[in-house]
Design brief:
Blueprint: H1 2-10, E1 22-24, H2 27-36, E2 42-44, H3 58-61, H4 72-76, E3 82-86, H5 91-99, E4 103-107, H6 113-127, H7 130-151, E5 157-160, E6 167-169, H8 174-181, E7 184-186, H9 187-190, E8 196-198, H10 201-204, E9 211-215, H11 222-227, H12 236-239, E10 243-246, H13 248-252, H14 257-269
Parallel strand pairs: 1-2, 1-3, 3-4, 5-7, 5-9, 9-10
Antiparallel strand pairs: 6-8
Helix pairs in contact: 6-7, 7-14, 8-14
Length: 275
């Protein structure tokens, strides 16, 4: 079946003009596609698009078909002329899609707000909506600027994002980007941790941490689990229950949902600036 689909889509390689059937294979590209495409261009979204545990665009995604899975066959069943993937898409899936002859746009970087703007421009151009992408980016920049103006002069709050999986988000992570826009210092990044690094349990006990940033994307009460988990349970911030909560889908968003995370964290850490 997959071989038949590959042959079919190879015959569409010469398709000209703006794409008419776009499939997004990842949740991150779902967000951007929904913001930039004409509704009639969207053939299908990822299988996570309508899952409230992960998706910040559940309402927007509701009218559209969703992939049964993230494999190439599931994508090609929707007869796309453009497929949006990401660096974390499985290599064999990307290879099969490229062999089919369909146009594939792969987003590779997501760590900063500037990466988000670049990704929006790239997808906007692929959709035939470059001017629309510029309008969307300008609106994001205005929203970020308004938040920075509200936080001007606020003392930064020193935070980490604890995890029950034994990792901390350091430099070059979306969490570090959220901190920079929310009046916070990511102490793990300050300590030199790169990416999502193993928790340096002993060293962390010497860090000055004002608050712990948690989200609702893990099962159960994450605060209660952190309070009983070494090394976090030994931290003064944990003992004082200084937790700042961010909505799970916003916390994990690699697209414009992270602007919600900027605002949510800023409000949690600097409530006096939002009265």
């Amino acid at each position: 079946m997959l071989r038949v689909l590959l042959c079919l889509f190879a015959s569409l390689a010469a398709f000209a003009g703006a794409p008419k059937r776009v499939v997004s294979q990842t949740l991150g590209t779902d967000e951007l596609l929904l913001a930039l495409a004409d509704p009639g261009q969207i053939a299908a979204l990822s299988h996570l698009a309508a899952d409230p545990k992960f998706s910040p665009v559940v309402k927007e995604a509701a009218p559209y078909p969703r992939l049964r899975d993230s494999d190439a066959e599931s994508v090609l069943k929707h007869r796309p002329d453009l497929v949006l993937v990401a660096s974390y898409t499985r290599a064999e899936t990307r290879a099969l899609l490229q062999r089919s002859g369909v146009t594939v746009v792969a987003l590779e970087r997501f760590d900063t707000f500037e990466d988000l703007c670049a990704n929006a421009r790239r997808i906007g151009a692929a959709l035939g909506h470059a001017a629309r992408a510029e309008t969307v980016v300008a609106a994001w920049r205005a929203r970020v600027a308004a938040l920075q103006a509200r936080l001007a002069g606020a003392p930064p709050v020193r935070v980490i994002a604890p995890s029950t999986y034994g990792f901390l988000a350091g430099l070059d992570t979306t969490f570090d980007d959220v901190c920079r826009h929310a009046g916070a210092v990511n102490v793990a990044a300050e300590a030199g941790l790169q990416g999502h690094a193993p928790t340096p349990a002993e060293a962390m006990l010497g860090w000055r941490i004002d608050a712990l940033v948690i989200s609702d994307d893990e099962r159960g009460d994450i605060a209660a689990r952190i309070e009983g988990l070494p090394p976090y349970k030994f931290l003064a911030a944990t003992k004082a229950r200084r937790f700042a909560r961010i909505n799970g889908p916003a916390m994990s968003s690699i697209s414009q949902g992270r602007l919600d995370a900027y605002e949510q964290l800023a409000k949690a850490l600097h409530p006096e600036r939002f009265r």
